[in-house]
Design brief:
six-stranded mixed sheet; Aldehyde Oxidoreductase, domain 3; four-stranded antiparallel sheet; binds uracil; alpha/beta
């Protein structure tokens, strides 16, 4: 067997055997197969797809390329929640403590941001002192003690994905449903949770640009989860505009805190409540409205925020030291009308340019910068009314670039829904 035979087979749209996929993945991880050969195979997969059987085999081979976490020392049902990535997505910071305050075990390994989307680990590190690197033992102990730990992925969890994902990122081979499904599910299954909840973002600011593709991805991930007897639930949510108002690390943590205290943005609250009530319903076997009542109670009685404080303290952070830049200026609307679109992708890129994200994994992030919207899709705006507040440090921003992200018309167009589908 040679890698060239395997590339040619996929180029001719044929189904690869498990042995062939193993040869390619393991050969790439150990260096026998070169970047240019793997990128050629990946491009053949992007163009010609994979059968479900090939995707399940690929997922399994990637899981077995590294450690699989054994969380059996944690008592109770362990939930992992993942988002396929969006702009202003701070869901985990709200949902984690909220569910943990009801006794659900949240043992979660999160990622950093790359591209125009942010990552939970960078957001947490904007809290002074917050340690995202716990040992496996510390991680398990903390979940047993306070029901929640949020840490960065250990280096030997699915090393095959780490290497292949980095290559995909620079070879135009990210956007493939089987490759995305196997990449996400290999990490979720290796992380050891009992129930996997995935928020598949759909729209301009997301990896999945349309609902049909998002449904295919969700169905495939549910099928992969089922083959490991891990119940997997996918919620499809709209990412045509940023989630909430804040984009940027410390600014997003502050918005998450407001939400935990009951005064957050309604779209963020709706997604968090929908995701959390599905999880509570599945774990406690109660109907959705009862689950939602329980969750609102935890916000109103302060328990959800208290759990966030406990989490920050347990991981060494100082909740009173979350700095945002004091160099703030306001961008005002150049006309009156209704906001029919806010370009999430472009705003995510602008936030990255001013320092809230990285261009390469080695770039330093500026936790204090970002954007806070003053308006959302559907709102009315007057000429000279504020659209966005910009928090800057060392870099500048173009006002016309930001204004071009807002589509303002005389009439309000039909509004799209926030929650698009549930697939389980
Ligand atoms: N997130 C992942 O972890 N992998 C992908 O391929 C895409 C998004």
């Amino acid at each position: 067997m040679t890698i060239i035979d395997i590339i040619n087979k996929k180029r001719l749209k044929k189904e690869l055997t498990r042995e062939e996929i193993t040869f390619a993945v393991n050969g790439y991880v150990n260096g026998d197969i070169k970047d240019y050969q793997m990128s050629s195979l990946l491009m053949a997969i992007v163009l010609n797809g994979m059968t479900d059987r090939e995707t399940i085999d690929l997922t399994d081979i990637m899981i077995n390329s590294g450690d699989v976490l054994d969380l059996s020392k944690i008592d109770g049902i362990i939930v992992d929640k993942h988002s396929t990535g969006g702009v202003g997505d701070k869901e985990t910071l709200v949902l984690g403590p909220l569910l943990a305050s009801l006794g659900i075990k949240i043992a979660k390994m999160s990622g950093r941001g790359l591209g125009h989307t942010g990552g939970t680990i960078d957001k947490l590190e904007s809290i002074k002192g917050f340690n995202t690197k716990l040992s496996e033992e510390e991680f398990i102990d903390q979940v047993n003690k306070i029901n929640i730990a949020l840490v960065s992925q250990t280096s030997n969890l699915v090393p095959a994905d780490k290497k292949i994902y980095a290559l995909r990122d620079v070879t135009g081979t990210v956007e493939s449903i089987p490759l995305i499904a196997s990449s996400i599910m290999s990490k979720k299954i290796a992380s050891g949770a009992d129930i996997i909840m995935i928020d598949v973002k759909v729209g301009n600011g997301a990896l999945m640009k349309n609902l049909d593709d998002a449904r295919l991805l969700a169905k495939l991930m549910v099928k992969i989860g089922a083959s490991y007897r891990k119940p997997t639930i996918c919620l499809l949510t709209n990412m045509e505009e940023p989630l909430g108002y804040a984009i940027g690390n410390a600014l997003e943590v502050k918005e998450a805190i407001d939400t935990l205290k009951g005064s957050g943005p309604s779209d963020l609250l709706e997604v968090v409540m929908t995701l959390s009530s599905i999880i509570i319903g599945a774990v406690k076997k109660i109907p959705n409205n009862e689950a939602k009542n329980l969750l609102f109670k935890q916000i109103n009685n302060g328990e959800a925020y208290k759990k966030f404080e406990e989490l920050v303290e347990a991981q060494g952070g100082d909740i009173n030291d979350i700095k945002v830049s004091d160099k703030v200026f306001s961008i005002k609307s150049d006309k009156s009308g209704y906001i029919n679109k806010i370009d999430a992708l472009r705003l995510g890129e602008i936030a990255k340019q001013i320092g809230a994200g990285r261009n390469t994994l080695d770039d330093e992030i500026d936790y204090e910068v970002g954007l806070v919207l003053n308006k959302k899709v559907g709102d009315k705006v007057e000429k000279d009314e504020e659209l966005v507040k910009v928090y800057l440090k060392n870099k500048d921003v173009s006002i016309s670039d930001i204004l071009s992200c807002f589509k303002i018309d005389d009439e309000l167009k039909v509004m799209t829904k926030l929650i698009l589908d549930i697939i389980k």
